[in-house]
Amino acid sequence: xVDIENLTKCYxxxxxxxxxxxxxxxxxxxxxxxxxxxxxxxxxxILCGLLKATSGNVIIDGVDALAKSAEIKRKIGYVPDFxxxxxxxxxxxxxxxxxxxxxxxxxxxxGIADELLELVNLKDKKDxxxxxxxxxxxxxxxxxxxxxxxxxxxxxxxxxxxxxPRARFEMKEILKHLGSMGKTIIISSHILPExxxxxxxxxxxxxxxxxxxxxxxxVMVHGQGMPPIRMKGYVLGLDPETSASRISVMxxxxxxxxxxxxxxxxxxxxxxGNKESDAEMLRSLVDNGVHVHQFVRDKENLESLFLEITGxxxxx
Amino acid sequence: MNRSLINPIVKKDMxxxxxxxxxxxxxTLINSLFAIIVAVFFLSNSTSQYQTYYTEVLRxxxxxxxxESAVISLVMxxxxxxxxxxxxxRQTLEIMLTTPVRPVSxxxxxxxxxxxxxxxxxxxxxxxxxxxxVFGGLSWATLxxxxxxxxxxxxxxxxxxxxxxxxxxxxxxxxxxxxxxxxVIAIVTLAANRGLQSAAETYMDNVxxxxxxxxxxxxxxxCTLFNPVxxxxxxxxxxxxxxxxxxxxxxxxxYYEFVVMHFxxxxxxxxxxxxxxxxxIASKKVMTGGRKKKVIHRRDGIQNGV
Lengths: 316, 306
Known about the structure:
The complex is a heterodimer.
Chain A (H helix, E strand, L loop, with lengths): L1 E10 L2 E11 L4 E5 L6 H8 L7 E6 L2 E2 L4 H4 L3 E4 L11 H11 L4 H14 L15 H12 L6 E5 L7 H16 L3 E5 L3 H7 L2 E6 L2 E7 H6 L7 E7 L4 H15 L2 E7 L2 E6 L3 H13 L2 E8 L4 H9 L6
Parallel strand pairs in A: 3-8, 3-9, 6-7, 7-8
Antiparallel strand pairs in A: 1-2, 1-4, 4-5, 9-10, 11-13, 11-14, 12-13
Helix pairs in contact in A: 3-4, 3-5, 5-6
Chain B lengths: L7 H11 L2 H25 L8 H4 L2 H22 L1 H7 L3 H5 L5 H22 L1 H4 L1 H4 L5 H28 L3 H34 L5 H16 L2 H14 L11 H9 L1 H23 L21
């Protein structure tokens, strides 16, 4: 459905996207993960024809998206990370307006809009002003608006940003439903646990480079390492800074550790190992006078994989 | 799918503006202004408490028409300069650009909806303009000319407004740039007009320098072509006083005579050509104009879900 090959976008000497490659099959829900400024929105904006690529190819449903952006706009529904609504505009009028931009007449839009508003649980709000809707409702309306022309590909840029847990749950259910209807969805989000539940495939981007992409299970299995050990502890009689420093040195000297991050008072110890080696590390820490009050290896999940892959930039 | 005949952006803008209190307030203010003008006119032209010469009343129409044109000249930059930039500020432009709607349709829709808004002002003020009808003497030709002036002003000023609205980041800067540009055009062309005319006058008495005087006068009338106020003033002067801005047959050469003879049509064509260029550039800039420069730094971070 979507084939992105060597997509590059430069702003002067700054390379926002560096030879990005993504393949998404029809009907897949693709989670696009990356830190702020990694290039997710840039990729999405190029897909939707809002930005011109410096080089590369983007094929959507067999159509060259970079050469035929007018044609491709009929195949894509875009939900940006903001609402973009008009004052003094009712929900149904909002839907009718965007339908008319796709050349649909009022009668055609009316029927489709009714169905879509029902899908996003806003049918009873159709005569209300858009401005009076809650944030979650507005975001659901944006999804309905993006579906007005029945696009084959839905692109959502952080749709859950700023939503409360309830609204996020509702959004997730809507997207799951759309996935079950066979829509291909590209979704970027910072809320990784939700993304891992929702997506069938993922791509992790950092510094404009695609680090890994593929089916969720494949990416997890072939991830670049194991999840970290989360440890909390201190050496009695030392100030927190010296204590943290001594523990770091001790662990690095005795074990084959890739990296140790300290976030607040929690040590994230990145190392390969199994139950026995983890137990040995714990015993060694205790034997060397470290008072350990938390020691657990993270479960394999998207969040740990993401931290592992992009972790080189974090405070160490 | 049956495409709607009306530009959807016009339909949407008119619907939104009809629900906005600003339209009602603007109509009330404009009509109040006209009511004051009419009252002052009748009071100042009454020969006694009960008598007003109807010939004097006939002059009311051009006066009100000039006032309406002036009001539209002030309102149009604000409406158009905030049109595209307003969509950008509201973050609706980007969504609009992901639909198949062409940038030229956005520009045309914005101009047309601004024109329709000004026509609402004109229609709302018709009762005042119609006072001249009551006394007779207002021809259809005059009315059509007046409508023509309104359409011209709408397109001319609107093209500047939409141009700046497409290239500027904010509505405020677009409005300021539009008003400043129109003011500069008006002032510079009038200053050039005065300067060249006084230069020509220094050669007028000298027969040997008649050619030079013709050159200056030709330059003067040419730069005046770029000032739409002049041809509009010329038309209203003819309506009120039966006089023209430029005298014909003054011996300043064939070029001067030609321009003066066809002054209105030439000025309209030149200014409409400028408007067409501005609207063309605006349609090219809708997508890229007003965009903030890319911030060249990356921030890393990840939010954990609840």
